[in-house]
Design goal:
The structure holds 2 protein chains of 2 kinds.
Chain A: H1 20-28, E1 34-38, H2 49-67, E2 74-78, H3 84-101, H4 115-128, H5 130-144, H6 155-181, E3 184-185, H7 186-193, H8 197-209, E4 213-219, E5 222-227
Parallel strand pairs in A: 1-2
Antiparallel strand pairs in A: 3-5, 4-5
Helix pairs in contact in A: 1-2, 1-4, 2-4, 2-5, 2-6, 4-6, 5-6, 6-8, 7-8
Chain B: E1 8-13, H1 17-20, H2 25-32, E2 38-40, E3 43-44, H3 50-62, E4 67-72, H4 75-88, E5 96-100, H5 102-106, H6 115-135, E6 142-145, E7 150-153, H7 157-168, E8 173-176, E9 191-192, E10 197-198, H8 199-212, E11 216-219, E12 222-230, E13 233-240, E14 243-249, E15 251-254, E16 259-260, E17 274-276, H9 277-286, E18 293-297, H10 314-328, E19 333-338, H11 346-357, E20 361-364, E21 372-374, E22 377-382, E23 387-392, E24 395-398, E25 402-403, H12 406-415, E26 442-444, H13 454-474, E27 476-479, E28 484-486, H14 497-501, E29 507-512, E30 515-520, H15 530-534, E31 540-542, H16 547-558
Parallel strand pairs in B: 1-2, 1-3, 1-4, 4-5, 7-8, 7-15, 8-11, 15-26, 17-24, 18-19, 18-24, 19-20
Antiparallel strand pairs in B: 6-27, 9-10, 12-13, 13-14, 16-25, 21-22, 22-23, 28-31, 29-30
The chains are: A mainly alpha, B alpha/beta.
Chain lengths: ~230, ~550
């Protein structure tokens, strides 16, 4: 059994341990590809860890793709611990796929470096934040037993919700990051972040209401907003 | 926590020629000595041999090491050994980290063309290991007392055998049966193949033995209402005959058995002229089997799209009953229509031979062209002759599979014991832990696990008892501290998201002076990390597998 020297193995107890923020962090630090290998579905050594992992990895892929990275750089594949040949196949395939994509931030990615790193950093912040984690954590519960009112959701419904949150979170965290640098108007933010101005206004007002922003000054009849330091 | 100076020792193993054959181990050791915080980096011929282990101990003492990395083989086989050696030398055993340069480098990159990139990989892995070691924290082995009492759920042949065996070992046992009588499926069976025993005699002897055993408390008509706790301390509330009872116990054996599939709408099943094997058994018992032309159809409702599995005992049952009919009435014509015959083992093979000698006819059918049951005849396409056969019939017997039950699902949910898609209980590992559930302290036996004959059920029950006896006789359980920890109590809001996702019931929300907080039942935790990866407050972490440690490994890799 021989295979490529391209991979480095990091041991975890169960793929259920894969934290979305840790996965994003790997790409922030310039990793070209991250392959998560776990048990076959239904044969998880930790009962249901790989199902949880799948939800989290799919969400992370969507977020990182939205940030401008080629989602093929993150992959979840399954095998049993007795399938060495399949292991070799998975790492060989993945290595070939990543070689095809080239280094992070190259032609295969929608956004080039160094802009991509900034965006991935924002994605990591969002993936470490409550909103996405809460929904992806509740996902198996909502699909399986439903919410407090016994309303059971399909995976498709939850994914659509998650897709919406990915867009919102990327926008709000981009605005926060931009305003942490320097105060700006909605118009300036919209231009810099390439978000339509009415959308930007909606996000800014939402963030202001929740105490993340406040008006700094008014310049040429346009309000400038600044970031408010958060406690805890 | 006081900040101590990090002093990492990296021991690189040659493993004879296993590693040194394709890696420059001395070069790796030299490289390791240049890494941050590494103060000592020797190479050994065999780190796991006495001489190598002595060198680790000597290194810890002489160089005042407080972290040890061994770059050698698989942690699956050698981590416990190196850990304990570090412990013997006075270091906390969990300040140890293992790097696998044998299975991940020297064995799998032997091509000369890979020599340099394999060395790069080994250097990276050692650097990543040292980076993780720098962040390791000390841990203590967890011990927990075990209540010396067992619960057996199900009073069939498996449950009775388990209860009797536990009772004979001197452990107090509580045996719960949902029906009004003990005995389970055997009560409705006639004779047992291949030993040709009377099923009632077998089960009645078992019931008497259980009832006479002073260590066994039996409750019939019982339902389990509530289950709390973990290995050693399961708190169970059950009701039996109208009264509710609470009991604490150390281990649980699940022997809830299986159900019979009723083949409604298949092969003209009516329970009169077309019956199941189970109904045939009842007719045998009542002495009401007198048909001269009998057709037995195998795999009815099994190995089909809705039930893909093979129930594996139905072939033996069909053939046993065919023999019984032939022995009572040699003139009777018995046909067995089958897909494949599952007659495993010496005795079953003999049964098949005997059936053929007695003149039972075997016709293989194609599931694409199943037999058609009509008034007084069965039409079947003969696979080998390539033509339709018409077989006259007075009675058709359908061999249906054992199926998982809703009761099993309820028990599985109560104990968080996993079931497969067919509602049979899942073992923790098919080969390594075939009698244990994924949750510690819970064991499975009998047809609750998979369709089994009586002998297999008894064997498995005895095996489950052996497993269950370990914590009962030791009186305590020792658990690896690779478990979840509430690293930031202030951050926890007591939301319970982690509790909902924990597959082991190892988390609960408690009201404390600081508000609702998660409480970790470390004994039940397996360290999978789902909770830590989920917590939106980042309040939970897994010992020795923290976010920071994983990130440090990646950062260290990228920092090459």
């Amino acid at each position: 059994m021989q295979y490529t020297t391209d991979i480095r193995v990091i041991r975890i107890m169960c793929t259920g341990r894969m934290d979305p923020a840790v996965m994003a962090d790997a790409f922030v630090h310039g990793l070209d590809g991250l392959l998560v290998l776990g048990c076959l579905f239904g044969e998880c050594h930790y009962v249901s860890g790989n199902f949880n992992a799948r939800h989290k990895i799919n969400m992370t892929k969507e977020m990182l793709a939205y940030a401008g990275m080629n989602p093929g750089r993150l992959s979840f594949r399954n095998l049993s611990s007795a399938e060495s040949e399949l292991f070799v196949k998975h790492v060989t395939d993945f290595s070939a796929e990543i070689r095809e994509l080239g280094p992070l931030g190259g032609e295969a990615d929608r956004v080039p470096l160094p802009k991509l790193r900034e965006k991935l950093e924002i994605a990591r912040t969002a993936l470490a934040g409550p909103k996405l984690r809460w929904v992806v954590g509740k996902k198996p519960v909502f699909i399986d037993t439903g919410n407090k009112y016994q309303e059971v959701f399909t995976e498709h419904e939850i994914n659509r919700t998650l897709g919406g949150i990915v867009v919102d979170e990327m926008a709000t965290h981009s605005i926060l990051a931009a305003l942490q640098n320097k105060p700006a108007s909605v118009k300036e933010l919209a231009k810099e972040l390439e978000i339509p101005a009415p959308e930007t206004l909606k996000y800014v007002l939402g963030l202001k209401r929740r105490g993340f922003l406040e008006m700094e000054s008014v310049k040429d009849h346009t309000p400038l907003y600044k970031y408010v330091e958060q406690e805890g | 926590m006081e900040k101590e100076e990090l002093r990492i020792g990296v021991f690189v193993c040659k493993c004879g020629s296993n590693i040194a054959g394709s890696l420059d181990v001395e070069g790796l050791a030299e490289y390791a000595s240049t890494l941050p915080n590494v103060v000592y980096a020797p190479w050994n011929l065999y780190t796991c041999a006495d001489a190598g282990l002595e060198e680790i101990k000597k290194g810890i003492k002489e160089h005042n090491l407080n972290r040890v990395v061994v770059a050698s083989c698989s942690p699956r086989t050698h981590e416990p050994l190196f850990r304990s050696v570090c412990g013997e030398a006075g270091m906390n055993p969990y300040f140890f980290e293992m790097v696998n340069i044998r299975d991940q480098c020297s064995w799998v990159h032997q091509d000369k063309a890979q020599a340099e990139s394999s060395m790069d990989k080994a250097r990276d892995l050692i650097r990543m290991g040292a980076a993780k070691a720098a962040l390791l924290e000390p841990q203590e082995i967890i011990t927990s007392e075990v209540e010396v009492r067992a619960l057996v759920i199900g009073g069939g042949i498996a449950g009775l055998t388990a209860a009797i065996s536990l009772g004979n070992r001197g452990f107090p046992v509580i045996l719960l049966e949902k029906e009004k009588e003990l005995g389970g499926m055997l009560r409705s069976l006639y004779r047992l193949a291949p030993m040709d025993l009377d099923a009632s005699e077998v089960i009645n002897a078992k019931i008497k033995e259980a009832e006479d055993n002073p260590n066994i408390e039996i409750y019939t008509g019982a339902t389990i209402e509530k289950v709390e706790g973990f290995i050693g301390k399961f708190d169970i509330t059950f009701s039996a005959n109208g009264t509710s009872k609470y009991v604490r116990l150390g281990v649980v054996i699940i022997a809830t058995g299986a159900g019979n599939l009723v083949p409604e709408g298949m092969y003209q099943y009516d329970g009169d002229k077309v019956i199941t094997q189970w109904e045939l058994e009842e007719r045998f018992k009542a002495g009401k089997v007198d048909a001269n032309n009998v057709v037995i159809i195998q795999c009815v409702g099994a190995r089909s799209p809705e039930r893909r599995y093979c129930s594996r005992i139905c072939c033996a049952i069909g053939i046993k009953n065919a023999i019984l009919i032939k022995e009572r009435n040699p003139e009777a014509k018995v046909h067995i229509l089958y897909r494949d015959l599952m007659m495993y083992g010496v005795e079953n093979e003999d049964q098949l031979r005997k059936a053929k000698e007695l003149g039972v006819r075997f016709v293989k059918y194609d599931p694409e062209r199943p037999p058609v049951v009509e008034e007084n005849k069965v039409t079947v396409f003969h696979h080998l002759m390539g033509k339709e056969l018409e077989i006259p019939q007075e009675m058709v017997v359908l061999s249906t599979p054992l199926v998982g039950t809703e009761d099993g699902v309820k028990i599985g949910n109560l104990f968080r014991a996993g079931l497969d898609q067919n509602k049979f209980f899942l073992e923790a590992h098919v080969k390594l832990r075939p009698l244990d559930c994924g949750t510690d302290g819970i064991f499975i036996c009998g047809s609750a696990h998979y369709p089994k004959d009586v002998r297999e059920s008894i064997m498995q029950a005895l095996g489950a008892v052996s497993r269950a006896s370990i914590p009962l006789s030791q009186g305590e359980v020792k658990i690896e501290p690779i478990v979840t920890t509430l690293v930031n109590k202030d951050a926890c809001r007591g939301c319970g998201l982690c509790v909902a996702l924990c597959p082991y019931n190892a988390l609960e929300i408690r009201d404390t002076d600081e508000g609702r907080k998660v409480n970790i039942i470390t004994v039940a935790c397996k360290g999978c990390g789902v909770c830590a990866a989920t917590c939106y407050r980042h309040a939970l972490s897994i010992n020795s597998f923290t976010d920071y440690q994983m990130e440090a490994q990646i950062h260290s890799f990228m920092a090459a």
